[in-house]
Amino acid sequence: MSEFYMTPRLSIFFIVLLLVVNCQNWGQYKRVDLTPQKIGTADIYVEGRSCKYFFQPIYPNLEVAVLDALSKAPGKKGLKNPEITDTTYMFSPIDRCTFVKGYATNEEPIEKPYK
Fold it and tell me: How far apart are CA 12 and CA 25, in angstroms?
């Protein structure tokens, strides 16, 4: 009789264990809303990415994604209105990618005093 009750409990334990092990911690992401900047005629829309393949590197690098985007617009120094997206792929050799989209520009940043 005890074997009959143990089997459902054991099954429930393994189901809960699979759910806990399969969940991922996505971290504490924050949304930062910036004031949109005006896009000039000299600004060029660019996209870049940084991916990790088979745990190399450990995390995608945001700097690499930005530099990849800027490499598509030679001579530009920065991005206006950037959009950063972090994507995780399951069942793929590409585990995780960080994508950056924005307008490459030569304008100097507007410096605001810190409060």
Answer: 23
Which pTM was predicted?
Answer: 0.63
Strand partners, 83: 101
End-to-end CA distance of the chain: 71
Backbone φ, ψ for residue 41 (5° rounding): -70, -25
| Nearest one of 87, 88, 82 to 100, comparing CA atoms | 82
**Distance (Å, whole) CA 27 – CA 43:** 34
How crowded is the C-beta side of 113, counted as CA atoms within 13 Å? 1
Cα 29 to Cα 34: distance, rounded to the nearest angstrom = 16
Q: What is the DSSP letter of 90?
A: S
Q: What is the mean pLDDT of each run of 10 residues along the chain (115 residues)?
A: 62 69 50 77 93 73 90 91 82 77 84 59
Domain boundaries, the chain: 44-107
